[in-house]
Amino acid sequence: MTFHILISDPLSEDGIYPLRQAEGMNIVMETNLTPEQLENRIDGFDALLVRSQTQVTRGLIERASNLKIIGRAGVGVDNIDLEAATEKGIIVVNAPDGNTNSAAEHTIAMMMSLARKIPQAFHALRNQNWDRKSYVGVELKNKTLGVVGLGRIGAEVAVRAKGQRMNVIAYDPFLTAEKAEKMGIGYGTIEEVLKAADFITVHTPLLKETHHLIDKQAFEIMKDGVQIINCARGGIIDENALYEAVKSKKVAGAALDVFEQEPMIDFRLLELPEIVATPHLGASTVEAQESVAVDVSMDVVSFLTTGTVRNSVNLPSVPKEIMAKIEPYFDLAERLGAFLTDLAEGTATEVNVKYSGDLANVEVGPLTRNMLKGLLKRHLGKHVNDVNAMYLANQKDIVVNEQKSTEAKGFTNLITVEVKTAKETRKAAGTLLNGQGARIVKVDDYLVDVVPAGHLLFIRHNDRPGVIGRVGTLLGQEDVNIATMQVGRSNVGGDAIMMLTIDKHADSSSLEQLKELSEIQNVTQIDL
Ligand SMILES: NC(=O)C1=CN([C@@H]2O[C@H](COP(=O)(O)OP(=O)(O)OC[C@H]3O[C@@H](n4cnc5c(N)ncnc54)[C@H](O)[C@@H]3O)[C@@H](O)[C@H]2O)C=CC1
Ligand SMILES: O=C(O)C(=O)COP(=O)(O)O
């Protein structure tokens, strides 16, 4: 089998060796495509690898009928329409750690350039202007650096700034007093940080919530003569507000690596002598590029060949050791979902899944997604997978509840799925028997022991002498061989069930004849 991989932004050749070494990878590198050319090119590719340049829009995703994985060789995924990818069941992975160091070093370099006006002085010198008066800077020592966003890069910047003998104060919604104390930095609300700082550096992702986080009002509460650094994302700082704040001397200078529009088309900010800038070079080191390309290539190979990834952005990551525990149950969960779709009459409005026994102590999200995949695939088709199963369930207004219990009624593990429709509530429970594989052990309130595979008939009837024989005879006449049969009843002469495994799909006329037999209430065929 050959997988087709399109690399549409420049990636380190040394870093993509996991792709080059893997068998069956057809790698196409086309890094100069226009958005239109890319849209016309994408169909047929299984994987797309990008950096920040390629805009992976909904339009592009819609044209990518075969795409399974988008790999972002870097951190920020704001150039990828995650919602569209998730809806289509395309997994998005990134390389969150590989460029942290380079981005932090670049931030410090930018702050020092800004403080000592190095780019401006160099520019003057280049123009043969020996000017020592215009480029008097300020020291970093004893100044306060405000860090907005203390994640991987923000934290590395904070550590380095302390090395410059700066005081550091940070704001991050996840920053605790203990962590701040451990790092030897101060913390506060965003307002407190903005008010206290001589230099402010932003390190948040670009989200709806962080768009124009630093706007006109934010500049107003800052110290006069504050200096700003942005090596995170254009758009976190409102460029128009920054322009005005620099013009009015509120802001003494700004160092920018990233811009609202990239590549830059409006150079107005750069006309201000207080601005220093680089064209999004934070991650542009040999080391970072190799590292992010290796990480993302490994995930792409791993996903295409084994279905597992380490750094998914649109699917919660599960630690390897937990994955090893739950993976054996994926198939059972999916089959239970499929079984109940066929069993329950009407469309599911609520699905309750209960994990008992061993499973109560592990992360079960992936199991629920597999169960939903089985449940939804019947009606929504092959494109349902564990990436989009939860999204599709939400979209169809299906309420999904998870429950856990250490008590497993004699089994070491048990997955019980209850499906509610407008018409009825149906239930099935399954387990993995040591060495014997998956079994459905309960349907509604009846105990059974059925391998969840092949062609099944679930029959509800009245517990009367001769019913079982009549079913067997009729199926025999219809040339349908019964492989296994289980019976159960609520009480003698009451409601009863038959659960048959048959060797082939029974046609609808056979099912109609079965339904016409006296004492038969209902017949459901389930193909797993
Ligand atoms: N210039 C460049 O070439 C590079 C830029 N980046 C960008 O740097 C940024 C940070 O990357 P990482 O540190 O790896 O990400 P991260 O995910 O480790 O850290 C982001 C932090 O921002 C915090 N945050 C979220 N919303 C916030 C808010 N409203 N206010 C304050 N904090 C908030 C989060 O809690 C998190 O701790 C991203 O935007 C990334 O795209 C990353 C690498 C290179
Ligand atoms: O990793 C990130 O978020 C970056 O901004 C790096 O972008 P790039 O891969 O250099 O286009």
Task: Give a verbal description of the structure.
With 528 residues, this protein is α/β, with parallel strands linked by helices. The protein has helices at residues 17-21, 35-41, 58-63, 82-87, 100-116, 118-126, 152-163, 177-183, 190-196, 216-221, 239-247, 286-306, 320-326, 330-343, 365-380, 389-395, 467-477, 508-516, and strands at 3-7, 25-29, 47-50, 69-72, 91-94, 144-148, 167-171, 186-187, 199-202, 226-230, 251-256, 275-277, 348-357, 399-405, 413-421, 425-433, 437-443, 446-450, 455-462, 482-489, 495-502, 520-527. Strands 8-7-6-9-10-11-12 form a 7-stranded parallel sheet, with helices on both faces. A hairpin with a 2-residue loop joins strand 17 and strand 18 (446-450). Helix 14 (330-343) crosses helix 15 (365-380). The protein is elongated. The model has no long low-confidence stretch (mean pLDDT 95). The site of 1,4-dihydronicotinamide adenine dinucleotide has 33 residues, from helix 5 and helix 7. Pathway: Amino-acid biosynthesis; L-serine biosynthesis; L-serine from 3-phospho-D-glycerate: step 1/3.
Question: What gap, in angstroms, lies between the N and C termini?
Answer: 26 Å
Question: What's the CATH class label of the largest domain?
Answer: Alpha Beta
CATH superfamily of the largest domain: NAD(P)-binding Rossmann-like Domain
**Content-based structural category:** alpha/beta
Separate helix tally:
18
Helix content: 25-40%
Q: Please, how many domains? A: 4
Cα radius of gyration in angstroms: 31 Å
* Residue runs with pLDDT of under 50 for 5 or more positions: none
Shape field: elongated
Q: Determine the strand fraction and express it as a percent band.
A: 15-25%
Strand order, largest beta sheet: 8-7-6-9-10-11-12
Count every beta strand, where a strand is a DSSP E run of 2 or more residues.
22
Q: Give average pLDDT, whole number.
A: 95
Tell me which CATH architecture of the largest domain applies here.
Answer: 3-Layer(aba) Sandwich
What is the CATH topology classification name of the largest domain?
Answer: Rossmann fold
Largest sheet: 7 strands, parallel
Spell out which ligands are present: 1,4-dihydronicotinamide adenine dinucleotide, 2-oxo-3-(phosphonooxy)propanoic acid
EC number: 1.1.1.95
Keywords: Amino-acid biosynthesis, NAD, Oxidoreductase, Serine biosynthesis
InterPro entries: ACT-like_dom_sf, ACT_dom, ASB_dom_sf, D-isomer_2_OHA_DH_cat_dom, D-isomer_DH_CS, D-isomer_DH_CS1, D-isomer_DH_NAD-bd, NAD(P)-bd_dom_sf
Domain ACT: 456-528
